[in-house]
Amino acid sequence: MGSNIRPISSLLLGVAFLLAGNGLQFTLLPLRAIHEGFSALALGLIGSAYYGGFVAGCLLGPYLVLRAGHIRAFSAMIALAVTVSLAYPLVANVPAWTLFRLVTGFCIAGFYLVIESWLNDRTSNDNRGLVMSTYVMVNFGALTVGQMLVSAYPIDQAGNFMVSAMLASLAIVPVALTRSAQPAPITIVSFRPRELYRAAPAGLVASFAIGLANGAFWSLGPVSAVGGGLAIHQVALFMSAATLAGAAAQWPIGRLSDRLDRRLVLLVTLIAAMASGLCLWLAPVSGAGFIALAMLFGATTLPGYSLAAAHAYDKTESSDMLPTAATILLANALGAAIGPFLASMLMTAEGPRALFLFTAFTQALLAAYIAYRRSVQASLTEPEKTDFDLAATAPVGAIVPTETLDPASPSVIAPEPPPLDQDRDSNAAAS
After folding, report:
1. Which of 151, 180, 354, 359 is most buried by its number of CB atoms within 10 A?
2. Residue 429 scores a pLDDT above 50
3. Phi/psi-derived region of residue 418, left when phi > 0, alpha when psi is between -120 and 50, beta in every other case
């Protein structure tokens, strides 16, 4: 294992630094926004802006990398992310924070794009699964550590924003100093939502609906935790507990779905997630009880994307795996861009804990749709399925499919990079 991980250790270290800073922001910003007097509706708009920027980064990021190269694009996006991290306490109003989160989402998507294409280029078919699974675990671990750092400084001070910016800045160091060669020019995978819906409607619809629920949770979970009576350090524990429980549940639930109808496993987890969400909304618990429910909620909610993606892969031909991966990711991100704003409207009317009423309602609708699809379409047999792949189905990262991109595939666009030195060569000839 060490021989496989060592060559890309600098990239993984860069991932850990940046996502620790981003995890800190996920918990810090809603808490600071409450201190600044932002309404729940404003918080929903700010949360949606992050995922809107993420969608834009998925669509436009490849062209930025084509123009500037991996390291320069990476450095530019980190610089933007760091600048924005320091700007939050300086300009504490809703329009500014909405713009800042939009920029952050774009930068994070671009960061994933560079790192994942680099990791894919540095691995082979023999070790790609191990490398990408390690990468996914680093994602979850860094996000958890970042969330726990929120109690390092008082919420009304700028210290946590500085810590977030410092962590993001450190991400440049191991990547800039790596001796690993830059990957080949990036390729762009096409999106095919109509084709995917015809092949695997449950996978596409589930990916979108899970984005609605999970995007709302990531953006507004700390607000709901404060509404549940938790102190700042308990809010960090609440979000971390949900994240770690969700990460731990990915593999066993995924492997169970290899043996059963994935839609059945998804249906059961949706019902369990709905029940835990209703408990978080209604149950008169706080403190340790609230955190225990968060673990159950995370363990049943976060694996949903993995099951939806795995089902979509089962239903598409191997030649269409690349556009399937890209389309599933985009559908999930679009749902996540809408979810926080919708949830915030319900929270405005019913209170902070109504976040979990929103997630439960979304999961109930999806469960009904999955049950309907099972009634009209037979389950796949075990030999017809692809094996569950944590790296390809994890709800973090996954900007670049884990398969090797073939420029000859009709699903892949390999545009020529612009002639960066054309102007310089023209000036030299003229002189």
Report:
1. 359
2. no
3. beta
CA distance 191 to 210: 19
Residue 346 to residue 149: CA distance in whole angstroms: 29
Alpha helix segments (H runs only) across 9-93: 9-36, 40-68, 70-87
Q: Please give the Cα distance from 7 to 142 (Å, whole number).
A: 20
Question: Tell me: the pLDDT tens digits for 192-214?
Answer: 778 888 888 888 899 999 999 99
Q: SS3 of 113, please?
A: helix
Query: Own/partner pairs for 275-279, CB < 8 Å, 24+ apart?
Result: 275/360, 276/300, 276/301, 277/301, 277/356, 277/357, 277/359, 277/360, 277/363, 278/356, 278/357, 278/360
pLDDT single digits (tens) 161-174 = 999 999 999 988 88
Please report where in the chains the tokens 């994070």 appear, as a residue: 108
372: three-class secondary structure by DSSP: helix
Q: What is the pLDDT of residues 133-147, one digit of tens each?
A: 777 788 888 888 999
Check: CB of residue 390 under 8 Å from CB of residue 256: no
Backbone phi, psi, residue 413, to 5°: -110, 130
User: Which DSSP symbol is given to 150?
Assistant: G
Q: How many Å apart are CA 406 and CA 202, to the nearest integer?
A: 28
